[in-house]
Amino acid sequence: MGKTLIVGISGSSGSILGIKLLEFLWSANYETHLITTSVAESIISHETSYEVADVKKLATKAHENTDFFAPVASGSFKTDGMVIIPCSMKTLAGIASGYSDNLLLRAADVSLKEKRKLVLVTRETPLSLIHIENMAKVTKAGAIVLPPVLSLYTKPEGIDDMLNYILGKVLDVLGIDNKLYERWGKSK
After folding, report:
1. N or C: which end of the chain has fewer CB within 10 A?
2. 87: domain CATH number?
3. Non-local CB neighbours of 92 within 8 Å, separated by 6+ positions
């Protein structure tokens, strides 16, 4: 196994990003611990052709969001980081305020307190001042806010190209080599 990563999928549009990240990490033989919220599971069913059970099988271990006895709830469980993709504004607010009332929020809190990478792929537009202030708060605490902003210099030919660009940026931040998108200065 390579690195150990926690992947969270919260209740926001864009669950396909979390699924595609899990597929990449699975194919690259990474150990992954998946946490999904109940709203995320509804969105997976609504937005994608994936069954929630099949998404959970893409992870080394899928944890129930209510399971505070899961290893990822403790700082003594070593990981190389955590990604919440997508990250809803509700989840962002919970992290920003230190309100860890479920496993996803607790694992994010642990990542911050242990000074491990925490990448939040925030999904909302337009942003309110509250959203922006919460993003500033988590950034000051050590998280990396990475909204799924499209890149047009790569001349995407479809949705897969756009998704791959965002996933490539997430993997870059985590220090994971990938060739999912065209780098600046390279031509197609």
Report:
1. C
2. 3.40.50.1950
3. 120, 122, 131, 134, 135, 138
Q: Answer positive or negative: Cα dihedral of 150, 155, 157, 163.
A: negative
Q: 145 - beta bridge partners?
A: 120
**Does residue 188 form part of some domain?**
no
Peptide linkage before 86 cis (omega within 30 of 0) = yes
Whether the model pTM is above 0.85: yes
**pLDDT tens column, 96-152:** 999 999 999 999 999 999 999 999 999 999 999 999 999 999 999 999 999 999 899
Backbone CA torsion sign across 14, 67, 134, 32: negative
Residue 82 near residue 176 (C-beta atoms within 8 A): no
Residue 34: count of CB within 10 angstroms of its CB: 22
